[in-house]
Amino acid sequence: MRKEIKLNESEFSKQVQRNVAALVEREVARKKFSKGAEQGRNLYTISRYTGLIKELGFESFIVGGAIRDTLLGGNPNDVDLSTTIPVLDLMMELMEKKLGQDKKNKSAGDPLPDLRKKLAFSILQVEPDYADGIDIVCFHDIDEYGASFNLSFDAMVRDFTINAVYYNPDKKTLIDPIGLGVEDLRARKLRFVEATRSDPAENKEALKRFLLDDPVNIARWIKFHLKKYKSEDQGTWSFKDAETWYIDIIRSCLQKLRKDKLMDLATQYRFLQRMGGTPETVFQFADKNKLVDELIWILRMNSDGSLRS
Question: Which of 17-21, 46-50, 76-80, 203-207 is predicted most confidently?
Fold first, then answer.
């Protein structure tokens, strides 16, 4: 069930509220533009981009890892925005307002932030070569009233509930379309969005299809476990222990991926990169959860994508 929470009326601490406010006013590509800031030039803050989107009559939301980590007291690098404005319209407006220039057509010495569009994914990136750039997802539909943005649909295609919490910088509200994200964040619980769709039996099959379609999501599950998140208790589900429930599914998927050769070397390499942690911590996790046999063929990969003998 969708929840909207005014941040200043929430249970999050005053410090977390200040951190969220600071996130909105943070500069893009701070290292690149730090000299200009020292000289008193305009900063390319996230609020300038969200403000322009608002001026144009559209909405924008900070979502994903940036709002997740900030609510937990962290200091994230990159920021993801979801917005209703079409990607090409936004790019033209940013260029007109001197908030960026198409990276492909920039002249040498142009001081404006780099812009890169990915039309196939409706994404516009501000300073894509910097860790503290912005990825703007332009999820745009047309209905009888004009532009619309279905947050519930956007949330349902994300990986975990903790990454499906949105912050509206205009209204200063948190929006939790699934109704579980904020609760899971507070408890550091890890729950796949795909496992919230229907009854437990259908959830299990839906989650298997989701993980087989993009195995890198298994790596992300491991990554968050290495960050001390715990799987959500499934209560009366077929496996009462949440870890057992998830590991059973993940073991089954990894076995099928290897047996049917569903992961090419490039995907295996991405898998390895997305797990994070050190080889030692990953192996310890695999050993503890009896996943060594299922993961060893990926753990044997070298940094150049080749396999160790």
Answer: 46-50
Would you kindly state where each structural domain of the chain is located, as residue ranges? 3-184, 188-299
Q: What is the CATH number of domain 3-184?
A: 3.30.460.10
Question: What distance, in Å, lies between the first and last C-alpha atoms of the chain?
Answer: 51
- In the 3-class helix/strand/coil scheme, how is the chain assigned residue by residue? CCEEEEHHHCCCCHHHHHHHHHHHCCECCHHHHHHHHHCCCCCCEHHHHHHHHHHCCCCEEEECHHHHHHHCCCCCCCEEEEECCCHHHHHHHHHHCCCCEEHHHCCCCCCCCEEEEEHHHCEEEECCCCCCCEEEEECCEEECCEEECCHHHHHHCCCEHHHCCEEECCCCEEEECCCCHHHHHHHCEECEHHHHCCCHHHHHHHHHHHHHHCCHHHHHHHHHHHCCCEECCCCCCCCCCHHHHHHHHHHHHHHHHHHCCCCCHHHHHHHHHHHCCCHHHHHHHHHHCCCHHHHHHHHCECCCCCECC
The structure tokens listed for 54 are 């608002």
At 150-171, the pLDDT tens digits run: 777 888 889 999 999 999 999 8
Single-letter code of the amino acid located at 253: C
Question: Taking all residues of the chain, what is their mean pLDDT, rounded to a whole number?
Answer: 84
Q: Please tell me the predicted confidence (pLDDT) of residue 239.
A: 40
Quick one: 55 exposed, middle or buried, by C-beta within 10 A (0-12, 13-18, 19+)?
A: exposed
pLDDT in tens, 211-228: 999 999 999 999 999 998
